[in-house]
Fold this protein.
Amino acid sequence: MAAGETHTHTAPDGTVYEHTHEHAHEPGAEHAHSHGHTHTNTKAVLNRLSRAIGHLESIRRMVEDGRDCSEVLIQLSAVKSAINNTGKVILKDHIEHCLVDAVECGDMDSIADLTEAIDRFIK
């Protein structure tokens, strides 16, 4: 698939996604997968991140105020869970869009990048 070419994907629920990839890869250069398209869950991910940031700021205030360590740990656990769930949304979106494109294009670097990212995410 050529850089800049617009194409579509159809999700299992029938939703059609259209996007364009902008690949910057020169022969012999190290591959850095970068593409310019939006994902269906971008707004939801940003909202989740904003909520987690706000929650984390409130935990910082709890610590500053000398709140009970047990309460702080419980709230940290909630933020950690929110971050993990946000990561799952991003991963699902990536698999449904970017990975499909990588397989179609024979882009083994992107598949390797995903494997590395998953390894880091689940640590």
